[in-house]
Amino acid sequence: MRVDWPLVGRGGELRLLTGLMRAQAGKSVVLAGTAGVGKTRLLLECLTVAETSGLPTARVAATRSAAHLPFGAFAPLLPPPDPQAVEAVEGQGEFLRRCCAALADRFGGHRFVLCVDDAHLLDHASATLLHHLVVSGLAFVVATVRIGEATPDPVVALWKDGLAERLDLTGLRSEAIEELLGLALEGPIDRAAVARFSLRCQGNVLYLRELVAGALDTQVLVNEGGIWRLTRELIPSDRLVELVETRLSGLTDLERWLLEVVALGEPVGSAELRTLADLSLVEALERHGLVASRVNGRRLEVHLAHPLYGEVLRARLSPLRARSIASSLARAVEGTGARRREDTLRVGTWQLESGEGLRGELMLSAAGVARQRYDFALAERLARAAVDAGVGFEGLFCAAQMAGFQGRVVDAEIELAAIAAGAADDRQRGLVAVTRMDNLQYGLGRSDEALRVGEEAEAQIADSTWRYEIAARRAAILVRTEGPRAAVEAAEPVCREAEGRARAWACLFSVVGLSRMGRLNDVLHIASRGHDAALAATGPPLQWPPEIFASMRCEALMHAGRLQEAEALATDEYRRALDDGSEEMRGVYAWFLSKVLASRGRLHLAAEYGYEGAAVFRQLGRRPFLAHVIGVLAGALAVSGRHNEAAELLAEAEAINMPPDEVYAVETLQARAWLAVAHGDIPQAQAILEEAARRGERTGDLAGQVSALHDLARIGAARDVADRLADAAGSMEGELPPARVRHVVALAANDAGELEQASDDFEGLGCDLFAAEAAASAAVVWRRSGLTRQAAAAERRAGLLAAGCDGAATPALCGIAARAVITSAEHQVARLAAAGRSNKQIADELVLSLRTVENYLHRVYEKLGITGRSELAAALKEHSPPPFSEGGPSANRELVRPRG
Q1: How much is the pLDDT for 887?
Q2: Number of H helices, E strands in the chain
């Protein structure tokens, strides 16, 4: 972490200060704000600007220890005082004149910039001198004062009488905090971590700095994949506790106790507080800025003025005192009616903490509220307390489900299997069966076992509602084991005939399949039906909230080419997940944002979201989803030249050891292909992409098939895949599939005009990477035709588009000029040689004679102006030629065909 944190979020204030400071007669300025808001930092920046501008400057820092000494703060700037003159009123006046004259002499009669920190702590004589310096025009003053502290009258008069502008500084906004943290940590930070830091510090930079330092020291804040993220909850460091305790110093025992009550119960209603303490005491604490009140509906609530006050107070509570306060709060809320739904959770939590008055049904209801707030750990504790209080099946089931939601999927399966053995009716059998199927599928990746659990349950269940639920889960499994087409066929009757939970689940996996099949209109229709069914579902909460349907709408929009809509939708849902505190939904929408941004060519941002999604799914133990997001992330990294990171991630995906997944398998294969491209192994990349295209065709994954065929064309096989791509894309809806076809047909025909039209099409859809590649290919064709002006224009366009693609290193964007003179076969051999293969290895891999390889390399050396193999890697990096011509293998007779 940087020692010197930069000034962020104060650009407007600094510009105002600079303008006033440089003006001949500009007003002075008083910066007012609470402790830690950044007053001193802005003051020091102003001092730096003044010094850089060549203005005479001086700085004064007031302190409590010097507040009883006349002119104590100004002592370093003033001549030694005459003690006898200072004692008399007339003598003080004369001394003021002497001080001003001395300061005028010190700065050669020029108006100087005087920075005064903590002016509210000035002694009266120093405050009077400060006022006189402003009135006389001898100094341009920038002073800081703390809101809520008594300030000397001469300082107050500065803004009261219009001698100075008063700027009230508030805490930094979340956007500024994100920027500041990125600069301080010298790297991007997970947005959820930004939200948690922002919530804790409330814009207070002093608290923020201590929170970050403490998180780094305890390794709560770690760098994973180039992104800083929090691994667990923030805990105030000892230094931060000391800072907060300084703010809380001087409280009476009763005031401290009341703050502890609010800390454990916030927000606490005034009616509840009235049963516990005198409200005049609350009003006094509010005047001191320690608590705040607000009206919520018709209810007056009290909360602590800063979240960190509560964290420190709760951390300092002894277990005995905490139990006593929790018991008092529970009785107070129940005594006033406990009418609100939130009161169920509050009372249940306090009874859990106090260990008194535990009632099973209340604990179970409270667990349900905690579950809906995504506080799975608290929900589990409440559910287990409900079991201890005598609640049987419902408590056991809720506790097991919450264990799975927190990533303890093995524990959840053991508990659920035990509960299943004691299920008493169809509802209990069905509820446990579908939950086990979810846990086995998404937590453990054991699809066959999940299907077996469903079959065994169906044999015991007569209720059609639960049989539909199991059938819906079967569709969810089929989308992974057999692909989109099978899932849509299995889900269709359930979507049509069932209601409630079963319809919601069946619709979800129907739209998963339909989105991969490119049926946008069906996705939008069925997603709406599923969302409505999820909202209307009764009983225990579904595995996924209704917001999950937006992810499938997002993917369908992306495949159709409505990328800006897809990005906006994913961004909105991602922010909702952050606000709701839903880690699982945050992971889902980080994954989909990574997808959309990669499709647009915004590779670095795609990698950021991809790393974030991967971290979330690792933490939650969602191995299938981790494998999915790794596929997207590795592909973005490979295309942007970060192939070492891509290779490490793909190795991790293999180590996850999940069964084959047909729904997103093509994406992972594409990532492996682009990694092969990055290593110069085009034959291997072609083979992988051919496998991906065949897999997509076999399972009904048209989106994957079309994308894989387009990738094949992008690395040189346009003529071989043009017809297949046109056939597959013709079954998809939207504008992106035909744009891909136009691009590939133009590549196959070496048609520069059509390539430029394809570039226009892609740019209009927001696919800047594809647009850049099409323009670059057009430039090559123009140059080969001798039309240098058109070639130059196309190169400029390609460069502008590629500039927004974060260093994308695809064959089409590399070495446009060189591609016009070096043949495809020569490129292929040269790339393998540069990658470290011997001539014999190249000959074996490409099924060539050793002499032919040597001839190819000799011609490459001549055309690139190098003397031998040792210079080849650098020359290829400079020229970066692609391995194939745009027309594909059949466009150049001497192209070497890969084995097999």
Answers
A1: 38
A2: 45, 10
Q: Kindly state the DSSP code that residue 895 receives in the 8-state scheme.
A: P
| Distance in angstroms (rounded) separating the CA atoms of residues 724 and 397 | 51
Summarised one tens digit per residue, pLDDT across range 503-557 is: 998 998 899 999 999 999 999 999 999 999 988 887 766 777 888 899 989 999 9
Asked if the model's pLDDT at residue 816 lies above 70, the reply is no
Q: Taking the domains of the chain in order of start, what are their residue ranges?
A: 11-168, 174-235, 407-544, 660-900
Taking only the tens place, the pLDDT of each residue in 627-675 is 899 999 999 999 998 989 999 999 998 887 766 678 888 999 999 999 9
Instruction: State the Cα angle at 266 between 262 and 270, rounded to 5°.
Output: 75
Within 13 Å of residue 353, how many CA atoms lie on the same side as its CB?
A: 24
Beta carbons of 693 and 664 less than 8 angstroms apart: no
11-40 residues labelled b (16+ CB within 10 A) or e (exposed): eebeeebbebbeeeebbbbbbbbbbbbbbb
Q: Which tens digits make up the pLDDT trace of 229-262?
A: 888 888 888 888 888 888 888 888 898 999 999 9
Q: How far apart are CA 351 and CA 338, in angstroms?
A: 14
Tokens of 779: 């430039």
CATH topology for the 407-544 domain: 1.25.40
Structure tokens that stand for 152 in this block: 């000397």
Q: What is the token pair recorded at 56?
A: 């005479």
For residues 198 and 92, give the distance between their C-alpha atoms in angstroms, rounded to a whole number: 48
Helix axes 191-201, 205-217, angle to 10 degrees: 130
Residues 6+ apart with CB under 8 A from 696: 666, 702, 703, 704, 705, 706, 708
Among 163, 299, 791, 722, residue whose Cα is nearest residue 799: 791
The domain 11-168 belongs to what CATH superfamily?
P-loop containing nucleotide triphosphate hydrolases (3.40.50.300)
| Strand pairing category for 227-230 and 291-296 | unpaired
Q: Cβ atoms within 10 A of the Cβ of 70, count?
A: 19
Residue of 516, 485, 492, 517 whose CA lies nearest to 506: 492
Q: How far apart are the first and last CA of the chain?
A: 53
Read off the pTM.
0.74
The strand order across the sheet containing 164-168 reads 57-61, 112-117, 139-146, 28-33, 164-168
Q: Which residues contact residue 617 at a Cβ distance below 8 angstroms, ignoring those fewer than 6 apart?
A: 587, 623, 625, 626, 629
